[in-house]
Amino acid sequence: MATRAAVLTGLDQPLVIRDDVEVEAPRAGEVRVRVAACGVCRSDLSMQDGTLPVPMPAVLGHEASAIVVEVGPDVTDLAPGDHVVVSWVPQCGACFFCRRGQPQLCQAADVVLLAGGLLDGTPRLRLDGAPLFQMSGTGTFAEETVVPACAAVKIPHDLPLDIAALLGCAVLTGVGAALNTATIRPGDAVAVVGCGGVGLNIIQGARIAGAEMIVAIDVSPAKLATAEAFGATHTVDATRVGPANAVRDLTGQRGADVAFEALGIATTIEQTIDMTRRGGQAVLVGIPRLDVMLTLPAMLGIVLQERAIKGCWYGSSDIRRDVPRLIDFYRDGRLLLDELVTRRIDLAGVNEALRAMKAGEVARSVIVY
Ligand SMILES: NC(=O)c1ccc[n+]([C@@H]2O[C@H](COP(=O)([O-])OP(=O)(O)OC[C@H]3O[C@@H](n4cnc5c(N)ncnc54)[C@H](O)[C@@H]3O)[C@@H](O)[C@H]2O)c1
Ligand SMILES: [Zn+2]
Ligand SMILES: [Zn+2]
Known about the structure:
It contains eleven helices and 18 strands. With about 375 residues, it is α/β, with parallel strands linked by helices. The chain folds into two domains: about 1-170 and about 315-369, Alpha-Beta Complex (Quinone Oxidoreductase, Chain A, domain 1); about 185-310, 3-Layer(aba) Sandwich (Rossmann fold). It has helices at about 40-50, 95-100, 110-115, 160-180, 195-210, 220-230, 245-250, 265-275, 300-305, 320-330, 350-360; strands spanning about 1-10, 15-25, 30-40, 60, 65-70, 85, 125, 130-135, 145-150, 150-155, 190-195, 215-220, 235, 255-260, 275-285, 310, 340-345, 365-369. It is globular. The chain binds nicotinamide-adenine-dinucleotide (NAD) and zinc ion (2 copies). The site of one zinc ion has 5 residues, from loops.
């Protein structure tokens, strides 16, 4: 059957809306879904501009909620009509990493990320008779798609689907970075560099973890104002002052107990490590270009200071444990979701949403189908 999707045909090209994308039936271990809503994340932009590789033509989009319409053979835990959050890291439950409690590093996800297909490496979308690749095995800039069943987490019917979409990337990643990847102790001083969709969620995760001081750093005064609503206690405009010095000034020259980077460029990564106190943690969440290398003072910057530098993938999230936990936080008022949505748009507005993200105008634009 045919569906409507936004297709990336080449680097730096605008996405093209096509009504004639073919969706194949789900195979074993897969589900066909009608996408309900999809947030536009910087990682989508990163595939359009080549920061992250993706085979083309491709359907981007990976931060989605959806309704199951058909299940493949042997899928028993999902049924047509179920509401789900789509995960861009399928978590197979059986590999070395899943069994060790690190499902965000699931081995099955490697092929999905690199091949732009499902778990067998092939996509279920076709265009003009040829394979149409699916970002991270999802491809939710489409009205319908097929995803691995282990990448679909059931959610209650009364949770609004437009805000549920954000759980799929920005919220799992950001809140997870604070609650799972980092060790934040009550009373800690935390700094967050880059306050977009992911950074704002790191800020609210740090608030939930009990951080006493949360320093938000961005180049946009509007983002800094939003950061305060999400829990930042101090803001730093990086166009006016050096962020690392500003954080040291706020912490009696000590530096942050935990500092997060949520943009993905070398300069801000180095600033983030520099603003971390002796014995503290720098958590790198932003996704840099593949050729970005860091130069660090090994002795004075790392060994002597006993700094820990940690990568963060998908907020170290176990999707089946963490999606329900985040919904509980939302329901008891601790997690802001509605406030993350700056604009609600239709699929045809996706190019404008990517532009607005690049210009730093939005926390999140959400496509509502
Ligand atoms: N590690 C993961 O699992 C994971 C998951 C999702 C997204 N990401 C990555 O996280 C990053 C952030 O994603 P997002 O969707 O929040 O992006 P975004 O564009 O919404 O946010 C980036 C923010 O950085 C700010 N900024 C720009 N230059 C700055 C500077 N010099 N100093 C401080 N702030 C600056 C912008 O104003 C903006 O608010 C991206 O690299 C994305 O690919 C990583
Ligand atoms: Zn994302
Ligand atoms: Zn696994």
